[in-house]
């Protein structure tokens, strides 16, 4: 029923567009000059048709269930029921009205169900009537207002402005919502686990929290030495460091090659090819790291008499570095290309060679942008999940040996949230605390990176 | 500088053709440039005067599709010869561009750039001297001596252009090429640069491309008039402006086209 009404409103909107435009053409045919193009008159009428109707429609959808519930439960007031019991009665009523109730049917509930059904049908039909009359009233009002000198362009433009504003508002509000949910869960977590233990504890062993019998009361002392985040922070930065050791030199050098040395033809093919690397799903990188690079490193290590874990930080970090190469190469290529040609000319005219020009003029000029691209790469490395989960192991060892396995923030969040979880449990909330810290780290990196890039842009444009 | 009443020829261009891909930009240019004089190249936009200027320090090498044919003799040495070392050539032939293009470095680093890459200074002291002399010659020293370690991009347009001149003369080039050096500047800065050009010609041979006929008349001793990739006429500035042989030159000078 709602769907039909919705479609009907949309159709009416289209129809009013044509009526609005038609009236504009009619005015035009009398040799009067319009204040806007005829389409604007159409849009104007369509907006007047659809918007009030949709507002009523959504208000109805929001308030109808509450009002119906109030009216149904009104019969049970003054009988000393608790809120929970009332809710139960209401759920039973609804189930019965849908014919899905399997329990014992009491006359009370049967009566309520009948009342519920009749209220619903009244609500439905009055909704249709009200929405339709609103449409008729507002379209008639707007249609009458259309004349040769009525203002239609401004309201339409304002409406578009409002639509775009709403869209960006939705994005912003979602972000804010996510951040708040992180914050509240994190606060709950730190009510049980002291902040100090989390930030400075060197022992991360959330599995200990898994064995708790949920019927037992929560005893904070049993979590001491369980949620010390130092090993996984260390692991995160360590793997990111390995990744950047791979990505920065290769990415930067290929960026410089593409921007300064490659001929137009080479560049034309090489750049998209490198960017394909960025399009490979991280899962694919993950099993490349876990099934190819990891075992290869292990064999290589064994042949050299080194003990290499099959899931090593080196394998995960190395593959992650390869994943980041295209970001750094492509961004630094853009930055270097945007250094004005006049600077190159100036340097060449002084007798500088190509490499001198790059080293002494272009690179310093592009440095802020390059730093920005590197920071964006780092924040990707820190936030990367799949490769680490698959290739670097899940045990949070505190180690600086790249041949051993370590774990990262992201991988631990996955470990914690896979399988059954209980809300309000420290082990689940630990994931939020980790997510929060990850968010803060990448946020800072991104802010710094964007600042740096922006500062650079201001210099040349 | 005159030897036995004959002016010394610094640069001798013989039958120079320039192509951008398949399109020919310069046709058969032959031009002698006298030493320690200012030679102005004038002509309507797109006539090839800048292209010719860029041939003289092989800056056209930077453009992939550009090819140069013919001989350009500087001190009787053909710079289009394979044996020519472009780095040494550009050390001898400085260039100042249309738009001031100081490097995004400090004033000091801008001027010391050339001497550094050519290894001209043995000590910090020597470099300081080079920087000071160059800035003094470019008539910029007094204005910037207290802020040598601030970025060169923070100067005004006219100051930036004089900084670029200081940068160009820091390696003591024999020839300075100027590609419309005043077109981005206001009249006061232009007057300063013109005064400077007059001063610089004592030690350097100067070739200047300009759109302003008045500027050519003011600063140059010799003038070459380019049109559609051809050198229509060249000679002393006096003659070109007062009594040109070619009617096209006459028309351009008097503003009838271009």
Describe this structure in words.
The complex is a heterodimer of chains A (461) and B (258). Chain A contains 16 helices and no strands. Chain A has two domains: 2-149, no CATH class; 221-460, MetI-like fold. The radius of gyration of chain A is 32 Å and the shape is flat. Helix content of chain A is 76%, strand content 0%. Chain A has 461 residues and is an all-alpha fold. Chain A has helices at 2-29, 38-73, 83-97, 107-145, 153-192, 195-200, 207-210, 230-261, 264-279, 282-303, 313-337, 341-349, 354-383, 386-391, 409-417, 426-460. The longest helix of chain A has 40 residues, at 153-192. In chain A, α1 (2-29) packs antiparallel against α2 (38-73), α1 (2-29) packs parallel to α4 and α5 packs across α16 (426-460). The model of chain B has no long low-confidence stretch (mean pLDDT 90). Chain B has ten helices and twelve strands. Chain B has a single domain (2-253), classed as Rossmann fold (3-Layer(aba) Sandwich). In chain B, β9 (175-179), α7 and β10 (205-209) form a beta-alpha-beta unit. The longest helix of chain B has 14 residues, at 124-137. Chain B has helices at residues 49-55, 86-92, 107-117, 124-137, 141-144, 157-169, 187-200, 213-219, 237-242, 247-253, and strands at 2-3, 6-7, 9-20, 23-34, 38-42, 66-74, 77-78, 93-96, 175-179, 205-209, 222-227, 230-236. With 258 residues, chain B is α/β, with parallel strands linked by helices. Chain B has a six-stranded mixed β-sheet, sandwiched between helices. In chain B, strands 4-3-6-7 form a four-stranded antiparallel β-sheet, covered by helices on one side. Classes of the chains: A mainly alpha (461), B alpha/beta (258). The A-B interface holds A 263-264, 340, 342-353, 356, 360-361, 364-365, 459 and B 57, 59, 62, 64, 86-91, 94-95, 97, 99, 101-105, 113-114, 117-118, 153, 164, 167-168, 171.
């Amino acid at each position: 029923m709602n769907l039909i009404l919705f479609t009907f409103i949309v159709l009416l909107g289209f129809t009013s567009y044509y009526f609005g435009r038609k009236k504009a053409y009619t005015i035009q045919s009398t040799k009067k000059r319009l204040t806007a193009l005829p389409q604007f008159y159409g849009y104007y009428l369509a907006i007047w048709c659809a918007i009030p109707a949709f507002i009523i429609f959504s208000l109805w959808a929001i308030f109808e269930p509450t009002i119906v519930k109030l009216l149904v439960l009104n019969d049970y007031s003054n009988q000393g029921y608790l809120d929970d019991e009332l809710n139960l009665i209401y759920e039973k009523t609804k189930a019965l009205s849908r014919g899905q109730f399997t329990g014992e049917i009491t006359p009370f509930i049967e009566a309520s169900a009948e009342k519920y059904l009749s209220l619903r049908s009244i609500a439905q039909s009055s909704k249709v009537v009200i929405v339709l009359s609103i449409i008729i009233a507002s379209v008639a009002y707007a249609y009458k207002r259309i004349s040769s000198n009525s203002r239609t362009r401004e309201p339409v433009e304002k409406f578009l402005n409002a639509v775009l504003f709403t869209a960006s508002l939705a994005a912003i509000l979602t972000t804010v919502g996510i951040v708040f949910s992180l914050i509240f869960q994190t606060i709950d977590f730190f009510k049980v686990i002291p902040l100090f233990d989390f930030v400075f504890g060197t022992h991360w062993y959330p599995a200990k929290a898994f064995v708790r019998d949920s019927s037992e009361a929560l005893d904070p002392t049993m979590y001491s030495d369980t949620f010390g985040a130092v090993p996984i922070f260390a692991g995160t930065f360590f793997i990111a460091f390995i990744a950047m050791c791979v990505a920065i030199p290769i990415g930067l050098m290929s960026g410089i090659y593409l921007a300064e040395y490659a001929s137009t033809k080479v560049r034309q093919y090489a750049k998209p090819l490198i960017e394909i690397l960025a399009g490979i799903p991280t899962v694919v990188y993950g099993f490349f790291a876990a099934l190819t690079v990891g075992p290869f490193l292990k064999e290589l290590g064994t042949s050299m008499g080194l003990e290499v874990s099959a899931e090593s930080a080196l394998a995960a970090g190395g593959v992650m570095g390869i994943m980041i190469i295209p970001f750094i190469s492509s961004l630094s290529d853009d930055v270097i290309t945007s250094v004005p040609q006049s600077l190159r000319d100036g340097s060449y005219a002084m007798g500088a060679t190509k490499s001198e020009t790059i080293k002494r003029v272009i690179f310093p000029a592009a440095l802020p942008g390059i730093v920005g691209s590197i920071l964006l790469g780092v924040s990707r490395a820190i936030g990367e999940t799949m490769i680490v989960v698959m290739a670097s192991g899940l045990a949070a060892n505190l180690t600086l040996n790249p041949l051993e396995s370590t774990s990262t923030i992201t991988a631990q969040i996955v470990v914690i949230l896979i399988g059954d979880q209980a809300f309000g449990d420290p082990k689940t909330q630990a994931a939020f605390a980790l997510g929060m810290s990850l968010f803060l780290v990448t946020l800072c990196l991104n802010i710094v990176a964007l600042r740096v890039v922006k500062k650079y842009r201001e210099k040349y444009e | 500088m005159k030897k036995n009443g004959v002016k010394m020829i610094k640069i001798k261009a013989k039958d120079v053709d320039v192509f951008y891909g398949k399109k020919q930009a310069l046709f058969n240019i032959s031009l002698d440039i006298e030493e320690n004089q200012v030679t102005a190249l004038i002509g309507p936009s797109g006539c090839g005067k800048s292209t010719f200027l860029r041939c003289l320090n092989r800056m056209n090498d930077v453009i992939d599709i550009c090819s140069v044919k013919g001989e350009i003799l500087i001190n009787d040495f053909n710079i289009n010869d394979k044996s020519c070392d472009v780095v040494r050539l550009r050390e001898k032939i400085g260039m100042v561009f249309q738009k001031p293009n100081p490097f995004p470095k400090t004033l000091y680093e801008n001027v010391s750039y050339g001497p550094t890459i050519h290894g001209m200074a043995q000590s910090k002291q020597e470099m300081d001297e080079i920087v000071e002399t160059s800035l003094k010659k470019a008539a910029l020293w007094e204005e910037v001596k207290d802020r040598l370690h601030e970025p060169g991009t923070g100067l005004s347009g006219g100051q930036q252009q004089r900084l670029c001149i200081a940068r160009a003369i820091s390696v003591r080039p024999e020839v300075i090429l100027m590609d419309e050096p005043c077109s981005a500047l206001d009249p006061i800065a232009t007057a300063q640069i013109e005064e400077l050009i007059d001063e610089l010609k004592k030690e350097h041979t100067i070739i200047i491309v300009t759109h302003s006929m008045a500027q050519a008349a003011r600063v140059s001793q010799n003038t070459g008039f380019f049109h559609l990739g051809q050198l229509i006429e060249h000679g002393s500035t006096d003659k070109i402006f007062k009594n040109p042989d070619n009617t096209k030159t006459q028309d351009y000078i008097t503003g009838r086209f271009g």
